[in-house]
Task: structure prediction
Amino acid sequence: MHTITVKNIPPELYRKLKQSAKDNRRSINSEIIMCIERTICSQRVDTLTFLKRIEQLQKGLSIPSIAEASLEKARDEGRS
Result:
């Protein structure tokens, strides 16, 4: 394992980091590692490719389209 020292962390950023670590029941060190992993290991998704894939998946489903009017009616009935 390697060690990194981070200097000059702004107080507000440190406060948020500390709170996030507490919320996730991790040490600050573990929280920093998770933040780095999420940033470095995450893959950028091309929006158009993603939307095309959703359309392909939807075509494979046997679920009829829902018209906007039907959604509004269901929403309004749910409020009664």
In short: Helices lie at 11-23, 28-41, 47-59, 68-78. The chain has a mean pLDDT of 89.
